[in-house]
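Sequence and fold
=================
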Amino acid sequence: MSNTRRTTPSSTRTRTAPKAQETVSYLGEKYKVAEKIGVWPQMMLARAAAEGINLGDMRGLAAVHATLENVIDPEDWGRFERDMIAKKADDLAELLDLVTQAAQIVTARQEKAAVPAANGSAPPG
């Protein structure tokens, strides 16, 4: 048995770059965007929007809440909720813009993953 240590040349080692986490900003804070967005909260929001969402519409507010919970990363959700309460967030239009920004990030991420690799093979996943 030898005490010689063998190493793999750096050219043959596979390195995985850390995954960039996209964020959205609201009221001076940044929040991570969820990896995946489910369709049900978006459908609830679409229905509420078609009927006209306002601060007095409990079903519409519930749809906005569900959609925000859907697009904000679970790791940041508790902090997001605490911040919205502490900062007395009251601009529904800005919250809806936040939902749109996060949804665009997830959509772009999914479209990028769907593009076949340069060698013609399908991306893993």
Summary: Residues 28-108 form one domain. The chain is about 50% helix and 5% strand. The helical segments are 39-51, 58-71, 74-86, 92-114.
